[in-house]
């Protein structure tokens, strides 16, 4: 659940196989167990189901220790009444040790798709009401979820640093041109640098298919009712995608300028893509996103002659929110400004 915008924790689908074998060691009193295997056939849809436990922990997208009424209302069928020990075997075709110091590994169950019985969140002021749940409880859940997310994000960052992977999180509102920017970027850079893409959308694999058409490997994460990617989704998608060492990993987040600002994925930079069709006041309307971003790309500048968009005012607004933010103006379709963007990427790859 996201108490920022009210989206519910529904079923997430990650392109992959029916089974995956994960072998993680975690320094907590209940390692988790879920068998998977890597197969390299046709992509199939994987569904992540969320459930409650009585362990007192809030695990990624399943809220442990929730009152009985909340569990019954949610319609979930598995509850654990024990201090459980889960372990999961984890077979990857790459060499890295999963002995890391975060507190837990959230349990993710890959199961056949079924009807979504989640609570209907998003009512009340600021999407902050859920049936049978107090505001205080919701705040506690959000704090716990963000804390756990940050632990997984730190683990992702360790992987990226160990494998010398430059991970970039592209964020924007829908229709800003992120996917077009990515495809045009990959056409220009993938012959020189190994690249991979994690695509985030609520539904469809359309964007991942557009990326794969460039010859670059991509995996689609469908968030269902969710409005953002989180660190666990990126972790699971990353292990299936298996990006090469010394490579560039683009993470295209769900189109949304609110919630992705609050979820660290382990990336080196968030990059806010803003099209000139959106209005120069977007940084002031959505300050958290622009405060969290290292770079703002002003896209579709080829349309400026037909619009009433003040580029200088947009940059001033972004710098008012984040004085350190860098700005690149470009047209992904026309090519203007793409050299500046590619130069920025090269500088980051060499950093």
Automatic annotation (TrEMBL):
Keyword entries, A-Z: GTP-binding, Hydrolase, Metal-binding, Nickel, Nucleotide-binding, Zinc
Segments of skewed composition (Basic and acidic residues): 65-76
Gene3D superfamilies noted in UniProt: P-loop containing nucleotide triphosphate hydrolases (3.40.50.300)
SUPFAM superfamilies for the chain: P-loop containing nucleoside triphosphate hydrolases
Record GO biological process: protein maturation
Comp. bias regions, Basic residues: 22-41, 48-64, 77-97
Superkingdom of the organism of origin: Bacteria
GO molecular function terms attached to this record: GTP binding; GTPase activity; nickel cation binding; zinc ion binding
CDD domains: HypB
Region span, Disordered: 17-102
InterPro entries cross-referenced by the UniProt entry: CobW/HypB/UreG_nucleotide-bd, Hyd_mat_HypB, P-loop_NTPase
Domain CobW/HypB/UreG nucleotide-binding: start-end pairs: 169-328
Matching PANTHER family: HYDROGENASE MATURATION FACTOR HYPB, HYDROGENASE PROTEIN ASSEMBLY PROTEIN, NICKEL CHAPERONE
UniProt xrefs under NCBIfam families: hypB (TIGR00073), PRK10463.1 (NF007775)
UniProt record similarity statement: Belongs to the SIMIBI class G3E GTPase family. HypB/HupM subfamily.
Name the record gives this protein: Hydrogenase maturation factor HypB
Organism from which the protein derives: Enterobacillus tribolii
């Amino acid at each position: 659940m996201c108490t920022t915008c009210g989206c519910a924790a529904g079923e997430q689908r990650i392109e992959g196989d029916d089974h995956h074998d994960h072998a993680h060691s975690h320094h907590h009193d209940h390692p988790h167990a879920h068998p998977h295997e890597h197969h390299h056939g046709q992509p199939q849809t994987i569904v992540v189901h969320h459930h409650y436990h009585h362990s007192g922990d809030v695990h990624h997208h399943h809220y442990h220790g929730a009152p009985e009424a909340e569990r019954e209302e949610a319609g979930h069928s598995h509850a654990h009444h024990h201090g459980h020990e889960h372990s999961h075997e984890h077979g990857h075709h790459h060499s890295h040790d999963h002995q890391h110091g975060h507190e837990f590994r959230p349990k993710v169950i890959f199961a056949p798709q079924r009807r979504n019985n989640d609570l209907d969140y998003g009512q009340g002021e600021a999407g902050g009401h859920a049936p049978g749940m107090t505001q205080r409880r919701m705040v506690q859940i959000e704090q716990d979820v963000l804390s756990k997310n940050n632990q997984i994000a730190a683990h992702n960052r360790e992987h990226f640093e160990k494998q010398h992977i430059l991970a970039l999180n592209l964020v924007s509102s829908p229709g800003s041109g992120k996917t077009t920017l990515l495809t045009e970027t990959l056409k220009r850079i993938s012959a020189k640098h190994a690249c991979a893409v994690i695509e985030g959308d609520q539904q469809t694999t359309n964007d991942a298919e557009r990326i794969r058409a460039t010859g670059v490997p991509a995996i689609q994460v469908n968030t269902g009712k969710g409005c953002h990617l989180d660190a666990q989704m990126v972790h699971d998608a990353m292990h299936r995608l298996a990006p090469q060492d010394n490579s560039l990993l683009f993470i295209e987040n769900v189109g949304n300028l609110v919630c992705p600002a609050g979820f660290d994925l382990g990336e080196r930079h968030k990059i806010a893509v803003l099209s000139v069709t959106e209005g120069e006041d977007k940084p002031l309307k959505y300050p958290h996103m622009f405060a969290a971003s290292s770079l703002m790309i002003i896209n579709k500048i080829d349309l400026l002659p037909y619009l009433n968009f003040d580029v200088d005012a947009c940059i001033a607004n972004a710098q008012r929110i984040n004085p350190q933010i860098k700005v690149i103006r470009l047209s992904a379709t026309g090519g203007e400004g793409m050299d500046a963007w590619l130069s920025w990427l090269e500088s980051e790859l060499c950093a």
